[in-house]
Design brief:
The N terminus and C terminus are likely disordered. The chain has 640 residues and is mostly helical. The chain is 82% helix and 0% strand.
């Protein structure tokens, strides 16, 4: 029995990470879908104004809400506190802050000060802040209830309605239905409506009204929650300063052209940070729920060891492919960013380490220490930018970012472990950092490794060394993170076989880059032919989808859609099933979507809404079974 508890902790962390990844993925897709709408229907001036307004809102929300959502997740997950009292106090604090903000905004608007920055958008900005703050509060409480699937589904739902309202306002409804020059108003209104729908949905599905108690307030708990959340206000603002100072100071010292290159520099390093962010949300929950467990220190030790091994391999892998990847992903005018990206890739290691250590402050309620370390980060980053940018230009921001995160990590490493004394393998950390730093220097000072193969060979050897050093730490947690049957098969492989598999995958990836993707196309199509000949339904489905998806990144959208239609037709001929017939119809629909994109999107949205209304009982039953399990689905059937 002693081994079972830790096992469930690791599995819970993994399952939550997967769910948060699904929820986060929808927002990433949304950004891609909204870019063509905004860039075609908003002027550059309007787009700039919307960016300023949303930045102002992002700065205001922590102040207005007193970051009470952070207290909601911390005390809501803690079994020592009543969730009803926690949620009630969270609502009171948030609504109270919004009421004070309304009064102050009215005063500022009457004095004319606000018009310099927000023009005539005071009211819509207030509504934007109101709905965003309440949505954050409600979705965070759903996480505190440990309804992570509902949280992820809500993210997908919000994404859908943001896209729907944006398409409606800009492309379907008459251009002047909100008045002339209403592009900015439509932008904000689409987000407000989707956030409002999210609030209503969460309230209904999680029955959040049952968690609000109108009566005597628990003043002691209120004081405790505010003591926890208020120090996080300047901490969040300071991290905003740290993250945005590079851009502002580059523009100030060097101009917008250099800032554009810096923006491109962040694209590939952000891939590592994005992957970690999905884990970070799940880890914060685990850090809180495991704070009082007997195996807490060992749990932290194992997860941090796995975490750092994964980050080292990811960072080293990015260093290995950063130059060919930049040639594929980044435009010709921004190719010089390849000189600075390796430094930022290195900085993501310490950025993620800092986030991990920060979770200890949240779990142990020592948020004042988070404020202190965030202040140090801001001072180091801004101070070094002022010194380095005028002297070494675009090398300055990446170096100052590394220095800021490294400084905070060192402080938090020694300080946070006074609260949770888990062991860190510093020898392993130093060796890995030296190897990855060597890779970084080679990539920075030789930006054309493809024509210097002996240097590329050294980078590859260094990468292999990182994999060898960290493979054992990662494989040791397969029993905890994966189902036992899969973990057994992986663990049966020797280290040499795992390395050979990994090297083989890298070699295949390198050949794919050299052949511009045709090697992958040929391999997937061969798999499709094999699946058809052996009547392997699952493999047929996987290869039918995999081939068009792999083509999208290099061939645009039309060629993959035609390929999908061809593969579906072949499948329909050999299988002659209803499923493949539907697949053929879907592929034809996608071709129509490509030809008449926005007309099809609008008709599809109407069809989805109409179908959702007709089949609402069946849909809600499905959602209940997915979110709550089969036990609660029968209880809510009569309420729909």
């Amino acid at each position: 029995m002693a081994e079972k508890a830790p096992q469930s902790s690791y599995m819970k962390l993994l399952s939550n990470t997967i769910v948060f990844a699904i929820g986060s993925f929808s927002s990433k897709v949304l950004v891609l879908l909204l870019i063509p709408i905004y860039t075609n229907y908003l002027t550059t001036s309007e787009l700039g104004t919307t960016d300023i307004l949303t930045q102002i809102a992002n700065w205001l929300m922590p102040i207005v809400s007193l970051t009470i959502a952070e207290a909601i997740i911390r005390f809501g997950l803690d079994k020592a506190y009543d969730k009803r009292k926690v949620f009630t106090l969270g609502n009171i604090v948030c609504v109270g802050g919004l009421a004070v903000f309304a009064v102050l905004l009215a005063i500022v608007s009457m004095t004319g000060i606000a018009s310099r920055y927000i023009g005539g958008y005071s009211i819509i900005l207030y509504i934007y802040v109101f709905t965003s703050s309440m949505k954050t509060l409600y979705s965070t409480f759903v996480r505190a209830m440990e309804e992570v699937k509902l949280f992820a589904f809500n993210g997908i739902l919000t994404t859908f309605f943001t896209l729907f309202w944006t398409a409606m306002f800009y492309m379907v409804l008459p251009k002047g239905f909100l008045g002339e020059q209403s592009g900015i108003l439509k932008y904000l209104l689409a987000i407000i409506l989707s956030d409002f729908i999210s609030i209503v949905f969460l309230t209904y599905k999680a029955k959040l009204w049952k968690y609000i108690e109108i009566g005597r307030l628990d003043k002691d708990l209120l004081h405790t929650m505010l003591q926890y959340s208020v120090p996080l206000i300047p901490a969040q603002l300071l991290w905003l300063i740290t993250n945005s100072s590079d851009s502002f100071m580059t523009t100030h010292y060097l101009g917008s052209h250099y800032n554009g290159i810096l923006s491109a520099t962040y694209k590939i390093p952000n891939l590592v940070a994005t992957v970690y962010m999905m884990f970070g949300q799940a880890w914060n929950m685990s850090a809180i729920t495991e704070n009082e467990s007997k195996d807490r220190d060992k749990f932290y030790e194992n997860v941090f060891d796995f975490n750092q091994s994964l980050l080292y391999i990811l960072a080293a892998g990015c260093m290995l492919i950063i130059q060919p990847l930049t040639k594929i992903m980044i435009g010709q005018d921004f190719q010089s960013c390849v000189k600075y990206s390796p430094i930022l890739i290195y900085s993501t290691i310490f950025s993620c380490f800092t986030t991990f250590m920060g979770s200890i402050y949240l779990a142990t309620k020592e948020t004042k220490k988070s404020l202190f370390t965030s202040l140090i980060s801001g001072i180091v980053n801004v101070g070094l930018n002022m010194i380095l940018i005028p002297t070494i230009k675009l090398y300055g921001p990446p170096i100052s970012t590394v220095a800021a995160y490294m400084t905070v990590f060192i402080i938090r490493t020694f300080d946070s472990r006074k609260l949770v004394p888990f062991r860190i393998d510093f020898v392993k950390m130093i060796i890995n950092n030296v190897i990855i730093a060597a890779m970084m220097f080679i990539c920075v000072f030789q930006t054309d490794l493809i024509h210097h193969l002996w240097l590329y060979a050294i980078v590859f050897i260094l990468f292999s060394a990182v994999v060898v050093l960290n493979l054992r730490s990662m494989s040791s947690l397969f029993y905890k993170f994966l189902p036992k049957t899969i973990a057994d098969k992986v663990s049966e492989l020797s280290t040499i076989k795992l390395i050979l598999i990994f090297v083989g995958m890298l070699a295949f990836g390198g050949l794919d880059i050299l052949t511009k993707g045709y090697l992958v196309y040929a391999a997937i199509f061969a798999g499709f032919c094999y699946a058809i000949s052996t009547r392997n339904n699952k493999l047929t489905l996987i290869t039918t989808l995999a081939l068009p998806i792999s083509m999208i990144f290099r061939q645009g959208i039309l060629a993959p859609l035609i390929m999908l239609a061809v593969l579906c037709t072949i499948s329909a001929y050999f299988y002659k099933t209803k499923t493949t017939a539907i697949a053929c119809g879907a592929s034809a629909y996608l071709l129509l979507l490509y030809a008449f994109f926005w007309v099809t999107v609008f008709i599809s949205c109407l069809a989805v809404m109409f179908s959702a209304f007709l089949f609402r009982k069946q849909i809600f039953n499905r959602i209940n079974k997915y979110v709550y399990g089969s036990k609660k689905s029968s209880e809510t059937e009569d309420d729909i």
